[in-house]
Amino acid sequence: MENLVVTPNRRPDPAHGPDGRRAGGRVLVAALAAAALLASAAAQAKAPPDSFAGLAEKLLPSVVNVSTTQVVEGRGGMELPQLPPGSPFEEFFKEFFDRNRPKEERRRRATSLGSGFIVDGGGYVVTNNHVIQDADEITVVLQDDTRLPAKVIGRDAKTDLAVLKIQTDRKLPAIKFGDSDGARVGDWVLAIGNPFGLGGTVTAGIISARGRDINAGPYDDFLQTDASINRGNSGGPMFNLDGEVIGVATAIYSPSGGSVGIGFAIPSNSAEPVIKQLIEHGVVRRGWLGVHIQAVTDEIAETLGLEEATGALVASVIQDGPAEKADIRAGDVILRFDGREVPEMRKLPRIVADTIVGKDVDVILWRDNAKVTVEVEIGLLPEDEVRVAKRGGRGGGGGVERTIASLGLSLSSVTDGLRQRFDLDDDAKGVVVTDVDQDGSAAGKGIRPGDLIVEVSQEEVSTPADIEEKVREARAAGRKSVLLLVEGQGGLRFVALRIAEG
Fold first, then answer.
1. Do 442 and 456 belong to one domain?
2. What is the rounded distance in angstroms from the CA atom of residue 176 to the CA atom of residue 239?
3. Are 198 and 233 in the same domain?
4. Catalytic: which of 62, 115, 234, 413?
5. What is the pLDDT along the chain (502 residues), one digit of tens a residue?
6. Boundaries of domain holding 376
7. Staple partner for 318: which of 90, 290, 327, 392, CB 3.0–4.6 Å?
8. Active site residue: 130, 226, 338, 457, which one?
9. Considering 160, 332, 338, 451, which one is annotated as catalytic?
10. Helix spans in 53-128 (H)
11. CB-based contacts of 85: which residues, under 8 Å, 6+ apart?
């Protein structure tokens, strides 16, 4: 700021007060404040380096190629040519090729390539589960082309991670994990891998987005990058400028099969706990709460008295699970879990899964327009944690119906005829949806004939009249929507239906 000069005795201008007096002090203060803000921004945002060469040279020895071999069964001989549908030659060629095809199946060896990185000098290597899945032989290739056989220590399909072990007399260069939660959109990253079998390939880019859900698994929370990632990069590391692993390259979006600048990496803060468990135990022990949850929409938040759509709504509670034992109920909204905020539904499964099995945690719920705290002992996630209610729809007889036009639904109490018509369980309770107005709000929410409405406004219902009464109460309270607990083909879920005027 030595070059800032304020000249005295000037006529009024924007740098002076309205009476012509100098306002140089204000200029100096403003300039100092602006300089401080710029300095702070510069401290947070790292400028791109002149070259990535030094960083790449340091990291390359820790990145490996993973080669797998699998013996597959298949028949040799000629294949049936593609013929137009209905061709008169189709039967002739089929009979000819079947007669001349070898009877014995031939065994052949299929190979595939991927990437990995060394996380321990003793020989532990991280890669993707899909890289080594079903492999009969696994070979790790070091930077100097040394080929070493590898065995699987453990793998986890839910996060698509696997740990291998190689044996060698020399000390291997291991790399460290960084804090992926601290990585921001726009930060520089470096990816190293084995694309198309071209080992030791280095690419650079930025983090394009965070928290991507690509439907790859139950714990999707990917980092998106525009650093070139291609086939063969799977399992390779993604580094920050400090040389720390903040992601494991796993998937790409590509209509062509090659890089189009949209790659996805498992964040290190999700990967590292899984990798540690695989090294120590060979398997992953995940925490389990024992609930089925769904998103809190704006309409559901309004019906429950929440100021904003946040948390995870408990649609149903699994019998004898940790949640039931802690008196967590369907209709509760989980706002905080073990001291961590639950800003949206899909964050909760990962938070619970990362919790130590057997730990007692505090869970803050929203129930009856107030916050409630319960203590839960976290259980071990069973392998068959996915439970789906099985229900079909068939034609047949029905019961006495009543139409509630404001919801766009025709409803009936449960009858023997409706049990047969919609294949309902013998102990089915609630009110049966017999017809849905395709122009009403219910159709847009996915409610279908054969669904059961179990609760309205978190109170059980058994007749259409019960539902009509709940709609009247909601209108009298000035609410625009009513909350239903619906059991359909996908199990129990909450649905907030807009009440039509009329």
1. yes
2. 10
3. yes
4. 234
5. 333 322 233 333 333 333 444 444 544 444 444 455 444 544 455 667 789 999 999 999 999 999 998 876 655 555 555 545 555 555 655 666 566 565 555 566 778 889 999 999 889 999 999 999 889 999 999 999 999 999 999 999 889 999 999 999 988 999 999 999 999 999 999 999 999 889 899 999 999 999 888 877 778 889 999 999 998 999 999 999 999 999 999 998 877 777 889 999 999 999 999 999 999 989 999 999 999 899 898 989 998 999 999 999 998 898 899 999 999 999 999 999 999 999 998 889 989 998 989 999 999 999 999 999 999 999 998 864 433 322 333 333 334 568 888 898 989 888 887 888 888 888 888 999 998 988 888 888 889 999 999 999 888 898 888 898 888 888 888 888 889 999 987 788 898 888 887 6
6. 287-380
7. 290
8. 130
9. 160
10. 53-59, 90-100
11. none
Kindly state whether residues 452 and 427 are assigned to the same domain: yes
- Which CATH number fits the domain that encloses residue 333? 2.30.42.10
> What DSSP letter does each residue of 279-339 carry, written as one string?
HHHSS---EE--EEEEE--HHHHHHHT-SSS-SEEEEEE-TTSHHHHTT--TT-EEEEETT
**105 located within any domain:** no
Identify whether 234 is a catalytic site residue.
yes
Nearest-angstrom CA–CA distance, 10 and 16: 8
Q: Which amino acid is at 274?
A: V
Task: Find the angle CA(216)-CA(493)-CA(375) to the nearest 5 degrees.
Answer: 85
Nearest CA-CA partner of 429 in 416, 413, 444: 413
Closest to 149 in 3D by CA, of 63, 62, 66, 236: 66
Tokens of 406: 């404001």
Contact assessment for residue 78 and residue 97, using Cβ atoms and an 8 Å cutoff:
yes
User: DSSP string of 141-176?
Assistant: E-TT--EEEEEEEEEETTTTEEEEEE--SSPP----
- 127, 140 contact by CB (below 8 A): no
**Same domain flag for 276 and 303:** no
For the record, the structure tokens of 22 come out as: 């100098």
Amino acid residing at 347: K
Q: What is the signed CA dihedral for 246, 251, 256, 258, rounded to 10 degrees?
A: 40
Number of domains in the chain: 3
Nearest Cα to Cα of residue 137 among 111, 163, 165: 111
Non-local (6+) Cβ contacts of 181 within 8 A are: 267, 269
Structure token digits, residue 383: 């392998």
If asked whether residues 358 and 435 sit together in one domain, one would say no
Q: Is 122 exposed, middle or buried (0-12, 13-18, 19+ CB in 10 A)?
A: middle
Which of 252, 281, 310 is a domain's end point? 281
